[in-house]
Amino acid sequence: MARMIGQPIVMKPILISQLALATVWLLTGSLAVADQDSKIVFEKQIRPILKQHCFHCHGEEEEVSAGLDLRLRRFLAQGGDSGAAIIPGDPENSLLIEVLRSGQMPEGKDKLPDQEIDLIAKWIQQGAPTARSEPETVAELDAFTEEERNWWSLQPIAAPQVPAANELTDSTNPIDRFIARSLQQSGLTFSPAADARTLIRRLQFDLTGLPPTPDEITAFTEQSKDAPESAYRSLLERLLNSPAYGERWARHWLDIAGYADSNGFDEKDVVREHAWRYRDYVIRSLNNDKPYDQFIREQLAGDEIAASLGMHANSPEEQDRARYAELLTATGFLRMAPDGSVSQNNITTRNQCVADTIKIISTTLYGMTIECAQCHNHRYDPITQADYYSLRAIFDPGFDVPRWRVPKNRLVSLQTKQQAEQAANIEKEAKKIDAERNAQQKQFIAEVLEKELAKRDEAIRDDLRVAYNSNAKQRTKEQTKLLSEHPSINKLSASSLYLYDSTYKTKHAATLKEIAARAQAIRDTKPTEEFVHAFTELANDPKAVVTTHVFFRGNPEAPKEKVLPSDLSVLASWRSTELAEFSDAVPTTGRRLAFARSVTDGRHPLLARVIVNRVWKHHFGRGLVSSAGDFGVLGERPSHPELLDWLATEFMESGWSLKALHRLILTSQTWQQSSKRSKRGDQIDPDNQLLSRQKTRRLEAEALRDALLAVTGKLNRKPFGPPIPVMPTTDGSIVVGNDTTDSAGRQTGKYIPLHGEEYRRSIYVQVRRSRPLDLLTTFDAPSMTDPNCISRPETTVSPQSLLMMNNSGMRAHARHFAQRLQNTGPPDQDSQIRTAFELCYGRKASETEIANSKNFINAQQQYYKDNPAKFENESGPAEKENASAQALALAAFCHALLSTNEFLYID
């Protein structure tokens, strides 16, 4: 039997803090700590420390604290109110070292790490040198140093030459040439190629998130014996063209886009009923291999693209209407952030929604932590506070904080004029039926009223009748008093008629119900009005367009200077960062369209690098830049910088095709290697950054759930449409199911079947921020309580093992698996065991495994004969009868197979 999950992973202790390392590494690209003899210069090693800890008080603000500006070496020597901050050559008598070592500075913050203080002291000891001459005045002071401007990820993407072949590989794939060069330089080699069974399982999970069937594995293995390359390429194309490909890779994109079906923010967590259309847009775009540059432009400015093409909901051509709907849906990317204004519509919640959206944009497109500059200049990267608000200015006209639209008011109807007229005509006919019902109902009420009045004294009948028929707000005191004295008349209404007249209850109620049904049948013929969560700008007078200001320390109620829309200013030395607006082609500001075109022009340094790295990460378990969401100073440097730039260049030149990028990576010798570790490889490259082998990886949360559905035979492949709901159980778990809790949050015990919808792929399960599905979150799926998920953690914790072994949902999967074995193939125990191994692991069971499995099943069967039990359901009514001991025993065996490392991990 395969081993159970949950084996501990040995983690290396973190000896130096990330921030401390950053100050040593900052702008040098090296982790080498300066020793006593190495030259330390202000711009490269010292200024980054001061920028991180001190500039906010000593340089960036309008008032310089204590008269001391730390932005130049010369200013440190001149000093402030307390005299010179440094005495070159004499660190022990330098005021800066004194206040840092005592912890007096930075004021109100933690003391600087000793290694940083020691570095500053060594610099002073060496005479406090600079790398170059400093400007004479503050006015001449550049926002960035030369080292900051030269940061690797902010440089133009190069087109490096592919290395020559060497003895490690005869592959013509350029990826292998780059990897082979690094391996050779380190004394390593490629691992052997993985076998056919491993390759098809790895490839199918990578591209579709689903396991191959036993028949698919057998066919591929046989074809690979005679024509391995042809068989592999044929398999690759089949998977890339599968609808499951878009469902698998859309999940990766939706993580960084922050996709959710609810607004989050508070416990109400209001549902976004139409957000799923954006999810479907992403799936379709990936399946159609929409060029990535077009994919980005549509999400940033789909509405402005539609306007520039003259497309709208009432376009005369159906294809134009469909294209308009697609473009509007794409802008849902800018409506994914959590939004508290649905319940607390104030300046704080509005600003937070905007800030979260800017974070999604910057981490998705730039792979940079631009949001860190919201309150002050970025402490590590060359990003100013003004840069942050200039980026925000691109999107502010759509947010329009002063004229804020709450989520329901942002919905854009896709209904055409013709459909609206058709719906209006249908509603007019339905209202005629409503009028007929109302008249009939009034007649019934009048009849009952007269019967009730007949029971009263004749002297007050007319007064009671007048009082009852008068408008409640216009009744006199006398009429109100009279009715209160006769409650049976006062309470007479359509909803209470059955209490007065048994004839009404048996006959008249049926008459009214039939009339209402006729009206509803007519209304059901209305064309469905579809809505999208779109990002659009309100009609604007150009002179009244919302302006963007820098906020003092990020406070939206403390605006400072006005900024114009632009890209990061650090790029201005080699590309234009200004954005044109008020194009005649669109009726809106055009800012987003200008930005979308700029960022996808093929010369932007980050867009292609970031997405290529993300694709690489999902294929290898680690990016060429391991910090996929941070290409800045605190992030990791590329393990293979030339390969990264070559891939980015190739990606753009191939038409921004993601499928072409997949082909390039997946046909490489590097990707097809075995994952078997070697002693030499672990010694030289323990983290496998040089890629001398493939990495064994655990299934991601959604792939795990989908694999369970596929293996047990329950998978429903229905694509697209509204999400499958989730619900809380009585024990507080979140499972798939129709929520039947009442308004007070109490369980009603009702069960509304989903008719097989509960077995659809995980990407179609509702992403409710306050109700993440237990199975998914336990295996590291994001709950989207943050704006987005830049990179999922990879944890190995005990709740994962406990869930696989004890969760009622897992027991339900095991039951379905057992039923599949009983309903297909020969009924004998040996055949069922062999089939189970092939379905679960894609391989044949050994004779020892068969014998052990039989012993286990027989022991379980005897146990359940002695201890009868019922099957459990994750949701829905409990079973009424005990299950057979044979069925329970087979389910226990299936549960054991599904809970193993071999099922959970891919080699």
UniProtKB/TrEMBL annotation:
<keyword id="KW-0349">Heme</keyword>
<dbReference type="GO" id="GO:0009055">
    <property type="term" value="F:electron transfer activity"/>
</dbReference>
<dbReference type="Pfam" id="PF07587">
    <property type="entry name" value="PSD1"/>
</dbReference>
<keyword id="KW-0479">Metal-binding</keyword>
<dbReference type="InterPro" id="IPR011429">
    <property type="entry name" value="Cyt_c_Planctomycete-type"/>
</dbReference>
<dbReference type="InterPro" id="IPR022655">
    <property type="entry name" value="DUF1553"/>
</dbReference>
<dbReference type="InterPro" id="IPR036909">
    <property type="entry name" value="Cyt_c-like_dom_sf"/>
</dbReference>
<dbReference type="Pfam" id="PF07583">
    <property type="entry name" value="PSCyt2"/>
</dbReference>
<dbReference type="GO" id="GO:0020037">
    <property type="term" value="F:heme binding"/>
</dbReference>
<dbReference type="GO" id="GO:0046872">
    <property type="term" value="F:metal ion binding"/>
</dbReference>
<keyword id="KW-0408">Iron</keyword>
<dbReference type="InterPro" id="IPR011444">
    <property type="entry name" value="DUF1549"/>
</dbReference>
<feature type="coiled-coil region">
    <location>
        <begin position="416"/>
        <end position="443"/>
    </location>
</feature>
<feature type="domain" description="Cytochrome c">
    <location>
        <begin position="33"/>
        <end position="128"/>
    </location>
</feature>
<protein>
    <submittedName>
        <fullName>Planctomycete cytochrome C</fullName>
    </submittedName>
</protein>
<keyword id="KW-0175">Coiled coil</keyword>
<dbReference type="Pfam" id="PF07635">
    <property type="entry name" value="PSCyt1"/>
</dbReference>
<dbReference type="InterPro" id="IPR009056">
    <property type="entry name" value="Cyt_c-like_dom"/>
</dbReference>
